[in-house]
Amino acid sequence: MSKKVAFKTLGCRLNLFETDALASEFAKKDYQIVDFAEKADVYVINTCTVTSMSDQKSRRVINQARRKNKDGITIVTGCMATNYKQQLENNDKIDYVVDNDHKTSVLSVAEAHFKGEIVSADSFEKDLFNYEPADHTFHTRSFIKIQDGCDNFCTFCIIPKVRGRATSRPVTDVLENIKKVVEFGFKEIIITGVNIGRYNHEGTDFESLVEQMLEIQGDFRIRISSIEPDGYTESFFRLFKHPKLSPHMHICLQSGSEEILLKMRRMYTAKLFKEMADKLEELYPGFSLTTDIIVGFPGETEAQFQETVDLANDIGFAHIHTFKYSVRKGTRAERLPDHVEEKEKNRRGEIIRKLSEKTRLTHRNKFIGKQQKVLIQKITEKGYASGYGEHYIPVIIEKTGLKTNTFYDVNITSITEKDEPVLLGTLSK
């Protein structure tokens, strides 16, 4: 009887790519992939440590895994496994701790365990990119890792410590990975990494890499995941004229205050960010720009927070992901004076969330009467098809009998009035 393996992923899309790749490897070895709520022989937890809340969620999942099946083994990997490696190794609820450098060895660790061998992930070769193209995944979209690590050293961020310095995957490996998953039948490719805009391998930069991706044959589209605002120009923006490149970017603002951006050691100004947002809207009306904002950074005054509110409102983001500043041990921000009280951070976070709801609804209403190319991800209880248009906006097609993982041209007719406003549409003739 084949062994069962369950996966849980926390955090970023880079973790999603790595979990998909690991799951595909286990499947090829005849493991049965089951839901994390079920009893399994192996529980793989791919953790996040970007905030204290991420740590709490990771610890909660680790405890859940042990309660479900005391006979199964628990393998903890990811950024928390790197940041708190020794502490986690002393946790009797965890059998193996695999840091990011050795994440590709998770299957090997499990296989060795069941053979009765005593192994450590550190005994396997360090490799950040040795992931086979995944055909068995948890998503209708395929995540492609092109880069890892970061050299920016923002004062609040622990990522350089847990992911290391910036390194880029060879161009040929990236392109072959995309070709392979397109052959598997994936229709949407999501480009991911820690700081993908800084991609550079033997003279090929991010812009040149995306150009080569767009030349790959097949019926699919490409979406750029979270990216830093590192001075993109019209030279890069011209690529969005290509029908395969989705008109959506998640560009991390973090703050609209020039003083706070300096304290964060961000590599841009609020003024330049606004100019970039304006240029995208000018070139591609309706372009979906989403972002991250941190509230309550040490020393952030009410006036500086208001600058963030004003800028976010002016830009009109399609969505804002809000974080409360969280102290990370060993970062420069930990030592800054005038830390903001938790109650005040909660208040500011709520203001940004309400602003996000307003700008998101305004943005989505612009698409009523227009057309979207929707990739179907699931079928609703009513039998209608649900998916995302090229602008990364959820759409429900009010028709039954449609197929998942298929593109449909849809005329947008209206929008729901739920907490998450969804576009409604009919098939174009």
Distance between the termini: 50 Å
Low-confidence runs: none
Tally of contiguous helical segments:
13
Approximately how much beta-strand content do the residues carry? 15-25%
With strands numbered from the N-terminus, the spatial order across the biggest sheet is 2-1-3-4-5
Oligomer: single chain
Sheet/helix structural class: alpha/beta
Radius of gyration: 22 Å
General shape: globular
Major sheet details? 5 strands, parallel
Helix content: 25-40%
Mean pLDDT: 92
Describe this structure in words.
The protein has 429 residues and is of the alpha/beta class. The chain contains 13 helices and 20 strands. It has helices at residues 13-28, 52-68, 79-83, 85-89, 106-114, 159-163, 171-184, 206-214, 234-237, 258-264, 270-283, 302-315, 342-365; strands at residues 4-9, 32-34, 42-47, 73-78, 96-98, 142-145, 147-148, 167-168, 188-192, 200-201, 204-205, 221-224, 248-250, 288-295, 319-324, 371-379, 385-388, 394-397, 407-415, 423-427. It has a 5-stranded parallel beta sheet, with helices on both faces. Strands 16-17-18-20-19 form a 5-stranded mixed beta barrel. Strand 16 and strand 17 form a beta hairpin. It is globular, with a radius of gyration of 22 Å. The termini are far apart. 41% of the residues are buried. The mean pLDDT is 92.
Write the layout of secondary structure elements.
Blueprint: E1 4-9, H1 13-28, E2 32-34, E3 42-47, H2 52-68, E4 73-78, H3 79-83, H4 85-89, E5 96-98, H5 106-114, E6 142-145, E7 147-148, H6 159-163, E8 167-168, H7 171-184, E9 188-192, E10 200-201, E11 204-205, H8 206-214, E12 221-224, H9 234-237, E13 248-250, H10 258-264, H11 270-283, E14 288-295, H12 302-315, E15 319-324, H13 342-365, E16 371-379, E17 385-388, E18 394-397, E19 407-415, E20 423-427
